[in-house]
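Appendix B. Extra example for self-study. Work through it before the problem class; the solution is given directly after the inputs so you can check yourself.
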Amino acid sequence: MKQLPDRVDAVVIGAGLAGLAAAREIKKRNRSVIVLEAQDGVGGRVRTDKVDGYVLDRGFQVLLTAYPELKNQIDMRALDLKMFSSGALVMRDGKPSVVTDPFREPRRAAATVVAPVGSLSDKMRIAALRWRVMHRDATRILNSPDISTVVALRSFGFSSKMIDRFFRPLFGGIQLDPDLRTSRRMFEIIFKSLSEGQSALPAKGMSAIPEQMAKNFGAENIFLGRRATKIEPGFVDVADTRIGTNAVVVATDQPTASELLNTREIASRVVGCVYFSADTPPTKEKFVVLDGTGQGPVLNAAVLSNVAPSYAPAGKHLIVAALPGIITGDLETMSRDHLRTWWGPQVDGWRHLKTYRITHAGPEQLPPFNPKQKVSLGNGLFVCGDHRDTGSIQGALYSGRRCGEAVAASLV
Ligand SMILES: Cc1cc2nc3c(=O)[nH]c(=O)nc-3n(C[C@H](O)[C@H](O)[C@H](O)COP(=O)(O)OP(=O)(O)OC[C@H]3O[C@@H](n4cnc5c(N)ncnc54)[C@H](O)[C@@H]3O)c2cc1C
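Solution. C-alpha cells for the complete assembly:
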C-alpha cells in the first residue's frame, strides 16, 4: 500500500466526481492535495463493471450532454459518446408508441401526435413547457416558487394519462422518484437539459468520466482503499494514521458526510437495476423504453447495445431494466415478469448478467429545494457532493469546483 503523507495543504475525502473536481481546482493553484477513497476504484456512484465482455454501469445512468459544467471539466470528445435517440418508446399493452421531440425528430412527429400517450392538448402543452424551460436560465428556474413535480404537472394542465404514461416513467426514472414528489425546480432543470442536449453513454462505460478526471489529476495523489475514519479541523485519521492539513474536504455521499460532520441526514433515493443479455434485441430502437402504465416495477429500460455496441460482445445484446424505489426481493424475476408483458416469451431466453441494489443513489430533493448550499463550514472544514447542489453529475461536478475554489482561496 502507498504510504500516506504526514502533512498536505488539503485532504479530499472521496474520489467521486465532486471530490475529483475539488482536488483538480486545488492542484491547479499549486497547493499540495491528496484524495482518500474508501473503495478500490475512483468514481463513487459512477462506476462500471466488466462482466463476460459486457459493460455494466452500476445502475442505469446516462450523461446529459447539456450539463453546463461538462465543458469546464471534461474532454467530451475523449469519451467517444454514443447517443440515445431523443424522445422515448412508451410500452403499453404490449405495443410500442414513439414519443419524440418534433423539433429534433420531425420525421417521427406524426407518430408522436397519434401516440396513445395523452391527448393532443397534452402534446401541445409539452411543446409549450419545452419552449418555457429553454428560454429561462437555470438561476431563474431555481428561484421560482417550488412545489412537487406532480402538482406542477397538474397545474400546467397535463392529464392523468399523460402524467402516468409519460412523465412518471421518464422523470420518475431519471430522478428515481416514481411518486414525482421531487421539486418542480429540479424537474424543470432536467427537462431543460433533455431539451437542450442529448442523453449519451461513453463507449467504455460511465466510469470513463471519473477515470478521465483521475488521470488528469494524477493517480499518484489518489489513495484507494483508504477510508477516513475521523476528521477534525487540522487533521484526518485513516485507521491509525493521522494526516495533518489546513483544509479537510468531505466529498463523500450525503449519509457519510452527515456522519463525519455530525449534520442532519437527508433521506436517500434507492434503485434496483437488472442486466440481461440476449442473442436478438427486443427492439432495434435507441430510445429509452418507458413503462406506459406508470406502475412499474420496471419504470424504464433500454437495449444499451443498440446505443453503444461496445457495451456487449459481438453478436450479443445488453438490456437494462431500472426499478426506482425497489431494492428488495427477487428483482430478476420481477423484471422478467414485467418485461414479458412488453416483449413476450423471448424474455425467458435472456441470460441474467447481474443485479445491482443501490441503497444511496441520490439525496431526496423535495420542495422547497435550494441547491448551491455553502461549501465552507469554517475552521478549515469544507464539504461538497451532489447533496450540496443538484443530485446529478452536473451537481457533483459543480459543487466540487465551487468547493475547490473556496479551499484554494482559504490557503493563500
Ligand atoms: C443508479 C444511479 C443512476 C444515476 N443516474 C444519473 C443520471 O442518469 N444522470 C445524472 O446526472 N446523475 C445520475 N445519478 C447521480 C450521480 O451519479 C451522482 O449525483 C453523482 O455521481 C454523485 O457524485 P458525488 O461525488 O457527489 O458522490 P459519490 O459518487 O457518492 O462519491 C463519494 C465517494 O466518497 C467515497 N467515500 C465515502 N466515505 C468515505 C470515507 N469515509 N473515506 C474515503 N472515501 C469515502 C465513496 O466511496 C465515493 O467514492 C445516478 C446515480 C445512481 C446511483
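Self-check: The first strand starts at residue 7 and ends at 13. If your reasoning did not lead you there, revisit section 3.
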